[in-house]
Design brief:
There is one protein chain. This protein has helices at 10-27, 41-56, 80-91, 93-99, 115-124, 140-149, 199-203, 211-223, 245-252, 273-281, 298-304, 310-323, 342-355, 382-405, and strands at 31-37, 59-61, 70-75, 104-109, 130-132, 154-156, 181-185, 187-188, 207-208, 228-232, 260-264, 288-290, 328-335, 359-364, 411-421, 426-430, 436-440, 455-464, 467-472. By secondary structure, the chain is α/β, with parallel strands linked by helices. Among the domains are: 4-156, 3-Layer(aba) Sandwich (Rossmann fold); 178-286, Transcription Regulator spoIIAA (2-Layer Sandwich), CATH 3.30.750.210; 411-472, OB fold (Dihydrolipoamide Acetyltransferase, E2P) (Beta Barrel), CATH 2.40.50. The strands form five sheets. It has a six-stranded parallel β-sheet with strand order 2-1-3-4-5-6, with helices on both faces. A five-stranded mixed β-barrel has the order 15-16-17-19-18. A three-stranded parallel β-sheet has the order 7-10-11, sandwiched between helices.
């Protein structure tokens, strides 16, 4: 697939726009849509574009499934729990459909790219009008029109193998969930094929947006007043536009105004010194580095097909600490990967202690159908996996608490998420390190200056493992 072939053609986008007035004429006025999203930030970003298409087709938003005339579930396939949750929600559609025969129902996302799940939905959930894959979002107008005019469930999924499918549609309308935080996808898909992960199979191979399109989107968001902008990709370090990822990040954080740029996720094997140096030098780039280690043992890392050793990971983590002492480092870890011994898990605990993660997202290994790891002999018993999970969580709680207590007495620039407890006057926000801080306002502090989307200085008074408490400071 050439670079030009990964972009949906102008002709196809115009063809899709042709279905919009047809849908409008069929649904009339006051019809409502409801989109429920499962999974990662990329799914959330996808749902915002689906919402944009719903609005231009004439639907308005509702949070109530019973009020909706169009329901879309955007699903995840990273862990079995996420799929089972989505299937459970799909089961509820039957009663909603019986109560409102005109209701249109759809399921999309990563789960739909798995043939066994599509078969299950077709057999057990015939009241779902259509399903569609991860690179068919731009075709929503046509799919809705077809559902309104034809009977029978339809599946809109690429017939190409996972190493060939995957496209990018530029210029789709967006309805953002927040007025001050925004997701900006810079690339899609993954080439890494970690042995436990389904992403390359359900998202396709890596393809990158044009640098100029990404930067134009970021610039427009800054002009609109957005304060927290996250660049998204399965592995942002693999971005291949006109600029390298460090260059793109630096340029995205170069527009006038007070705002922060974040990114996720960064694969350790590709995280470069240049990226860390750019982060350290640019004050608009958030000082939070999410660097998933997954395991601290070299044999397990090799079985996972991660492409780095524990020594290489530690070298990069230490460089982050050296260049940005104020930065937070967070990570992901899988407990109980197939064949993992107790001694090998000890190596994971050891790397957690050595790095001193500010935040840790710990998971019990979940076999995913179609992955290499799911077929490995030596699957670890569930009770062993959960025991390791509990042990690691307890260890990280102590580490995170120790790190956070060092913040007591310090002042941080905080982006407010607004008041969370009006009775006590408690507000909440996030630091540049992506740490949540609850804070109160001193006497005489104007509440509107602490409203959601405003920056203010907060002094930390108390600290716990995953929470800071403080007081807003008035400017002299």
């Amino acid at each position: 697939m050439t670079k030009n072939e990964i972009f949906v053609s102008a002709e196809e986008l115009e063809r899709q726009r042709g279905f919009i007035p047809r849908v409008r004429s069929l649904i009339g006025e006051e019809k409502k849509y409801c989109i429920q999203t499962f999974g990662c930030q990329q799914n959330e970003a996808d749902s915002e574009r689906l919402a944009g298409l719903c609005v231009v087709m004439g639907y308005c938003k509702t949070e109530s499934l019973s009020e909706a005339d169009l329901i879309i579930y955007n699903t995840c396939a990273i862990r079995e729990h996420a799929e089972l949750k989505a299937l459970s929600k799909a089961g509820q559609l039957k009663k909603l459909k019986e109560a409102k025969r005109s209701l249109i129902t759809a399921i999309c996302g990563c789960m739909i790219e798995q043939e066994h799940r599509r078969t299950q939905l077709s057999k057990s959930y015939p009241y779902v009008d259509f399903v569609f894959g991860t690179d068919r979002h731009h075709a929503l107008p046509e799919m809705v029109y077809t559902a309104l005019t034809q009977k029978g469930a339809k599946a809109h999924v690429s017939s190409l193998p996972h190493n060939e499918f995957g496209i990018i549609a530029e210029g789709l309308p967006v309805v953002r969930e927040s007025s001050y935080k925004a997701w900006v996808s810079i690339m899609y898909g993954c080439n890494n094929f970690c042995s436990y992960c389904v992403v390359p199979y359900v998202r396709g191979r890596e393809r990158s947006r044009r640098s100029e399109d990404v930067l134009k989107e970021v610039e427009n968001l800054v002009k609109m007043g957005y304060k927290d902008i996250t660049l998204l990709g399965q592995n942002v370090n693999s971005y291949r536009g006109d600029y390298s990822f460090p260059e793109l990040l630096d340029r995205a954080a170069s527009f006038d105004g007070e705002y922060r740029v974040r990114f996720m996720t960064s694969h350790p094997k590709d995280a470069s010194k240049e990226l860390i140096d750019v982060m350290a030098a640019n004050p608009r780039i958030a000082k939070h580095f999410h660097l998933p280690v997954q395991s601290g043992d070299n044999r397990i890392l090799k079985l996972m097909n991660r492409g780095y050793t524990r020594e290489e990971y530690l070298k990069k983590a230490y460089y982050i600490r050296e260049k940005m002492p104020e930065a937070a480092i967070s990570s992901d870890i899988i407990c109980g990967f197939p064949t993992e011994t107790e001694a090998e898990f000890d190596n994971t605990v050891d790397i957690v202690e050595k790095v001193g993660f500010d935040m840790l997202f710990t998971f019990v290994y979940s076999p995913r159908k179609g992955t290499v790891a799911a077929e490995m002999e030596g699957q670890v018993p569930h009770e062993v996996k959960t025991a390791r999970f509990a042990r690691l969580s307890a260890k990280e709680n102590l580490i995170a608490e120790g790190i956070n207590k060092q913040s007591v007495g310090k002042t941080f620039r905080v982006l407010s998420d607004g008041i969370v407890n009006p009775e006590d006057g408690i507000y909440s926000g996030r630091t540049t390190q992506n740490k949540i801080i609850s804070f109160s306002l001193p006497e005489g502090f104007a509440p509107e200056k602490a409203a959601a989307g405003h920056f203010l200085d907060v002094k930390v008074d108390h600290a716990q493992a995953y929470a800071l408490t403080g007081t807003a400071l008035t400017k002299d």
